[in-house]
TrEMBL record:
Domain NAD(P)-binding, first and last residues per copy: 5-258
Gene Ontology CC entries for this record: cytosol
This protein's name: UDP-glucose 4-epimerase
A molecular-function term among this protein's GO annotations: UDP-glucose 4-epimerase activity
Catalysed conversion reaction: UDP-alpha-D-glucose = UDP-alpha-D-galactose
Keyword set, alphabetical order: Carbohydrate metabolism, Galactose metabolism, Isomerase, NAD
Superkingdom, taxonomy of origin: Eukaryota
Cofactor(s) annotated in UniProt: NAD(+)
Any one biological process term the GO annotation gives: galactose metabolic process
Originating organism: Phaseolus vulgaris
Short name of any one Pfam family annotated for the protein: GDP_Man_Dehyd
Length: 278
C-alpha cells in the first residue's frame, strides 16, 4: 500500500449554517455545527502545522450600526445565535493568535453576497423558502413563488426600505484570493477586512434592477419590519483596498444579470422541477 502525505499551506473556512431564523429556533445546532466544527478544524490544522487561515465572517457582527459606512473598528454586537457564532469564532481567532504568533489569520466580513457565476451553471440554491432577498426575488421571477413581501417601508431611507451593501460573488471570490496572498505577508497577525462595495442599495432599487435584468415583473406586498433587521448597513472598503489591494468591480446590474442567467437556465436550482429536497 502506498502512503502519501498531503501538505496544506492554508485553509479557507467557509463552512457553516447561516439561516438566522433557524438559529433562533435551534441554537444548539448552530453552536454545535459552527463552533465545535471550527474548533476541531483549528485543532487539526495545528496538528498538521498549518496555521494560515481565511475565515468567512459576516457584517452581521456590526448589529444595527450607529453610523455608516461600517469600518472594521466599529463596536461589535449580535442579535441572534447565527451572528453569535460568527462573533465567537472571530474572538477564538484573536485568542488563538495571542496564544501562538505562528498563526496568520484573516477574518473577512462579508456584506450581502448575490449574483452567480457568469456561465449560469453555478449559483445559490437554498433549501425551502429562501430567507434572503435575492434568492426570494429569483424564485418569484421563475414562478416558484407568487410575490415578494417587503419587510418594512417605514425606515428612514430614501424610499423607506432597508439599505444593504450587495456584492457580486465573483468579487467576493477575488477577495479571498487577495486575502490568501496577504497571508504571505510576514507581518500579518489576526486581521479583519470588510468585503463589500461601499455602496448602499435599497430593497426597491434591487428589485427594480432585477426586473430590468430579467424582463420579469416582481409582484410586491408590503409587510412589517423583520425582527433583528438593521436600517442601513454598508461597508467602508478602504482597509481592504489599501491592504489587500482589492476592490469590488461589479455593480448591481451585473449582479442581477448573472443571477438571472443562472435562474433562467436552472429555475429549480440543482434539482428537478418539484423536487423539494434539492
Ligand atoms: C441576513 C441576515 C444576516 C446574514 C445574511 C446572510 C437577518 C436579520 N440577517 O442579512 O445575519 O449574515 O442574511 O446573507 O436575517 N428583505 C425583504 N424581503 C425578503 C427578504 C429580505 O424585504 O423576503 C429585505 C430585508 O429586510 C433587508 C434586505 O432585504 O432589508 C436584505 O435582506 P437579506 O437578504 O435577508 O440580508 P440581511 O438581512 O442583510
Amino acid at each position: 500500500m502506498t502512503l502519501f502525505t498531503c501538505r496544506f499551506d492554508a485553509v479557507i473556512h467557509f463552512a457553516g449554517l447561516k439561516a438566522v431564523g433557524e438559529s433562533v429556533r435551534k441554537p444548539l445546532l448552530y453552536f454545535d455545527n459552527n463552533l465545535i466544527g471550527t474548533i476541531i478544524l483549528f485543532q487539526v490544522m495545528a496538528a498538521h502545522g498549518c496555521k494560515k487561515l481565511v475565515f468567512s465572517s459576516s457584517a452581521t457582527v456590526y448589529g444595527w450600526p450607529k453610523e455608516v459606512p461600517c469600518t472594521e473598528e466599529f463596536p461589535l454586537s449580535v442579535t441572534n445565535p447565527y451572528g453569535r457564532t460568527k462573533l465567537i469564532i472571530e474572538e477564538i481567532c484573536r485568542d488563538l493568535y495571542c496564544s501562538d504568533s505562528d498563526w496568520k489569520i484573516i477574518l473577512l466580513r462579508y456584506f450581502n453576497p448575490v449574483g452567480a457565476h457568469p456561465s449560469g451553471s453555478i449559483g445559490e440554491d437554498p433549501r425551502g423558502i429562501p430567507n434572503n432577498l435575492m434568492p426570494f426575488v429569483q424564485q418569484v421571477a421563475v414562478g416558484r413563488l407568487t410575490s415578494l413581501t417587503i419587510f418594512g417601508n417605514d425606515y428612514k431611507t430614501s424610499d423607506g426600505t432597508g439599505i444593504r451593501d450587495y456584492i457580486h460573488v465573483l468579487d467576493l471570490a477575488e477577495g479571498h484570493i487577495a486575502a490568501l496572498r496577504k497571508l504571505d505577508d510576514a507581518k500579518i497577525g489576526c486581521e479583519v477586512y470588510n468585503l463589500g462595495t461601499g455602496k448602499g442599495t435599497s430593497v426597491l432599487e434591487m428589485v427594480k434592477a432585477f426586473e430590468q435584468a430579467s424582463g420579469k415583473k416582481i409582484p410586491l406586498a408590503m409587510g412589517g419590519r423583520r425582527p433583528g433587521d438593521a436600517e442601513i448597513v454598508y461597508a467602508s472598503t478602504k482597509k481592504a483596498e489599501r491592504e489587500l489591494n482589492w476592490k469590488a468591480k461589479h455593480g448591481i446590474d451585473d449582479m442581477c444579470r448573472d443571477q438571472w442567467n443562472w435562474a433562467s437556465k436552472n429555475p429549480y436550482g440543482y434539482g428537478r422541477s418539484g423536487d423539494s429536497s434539492n
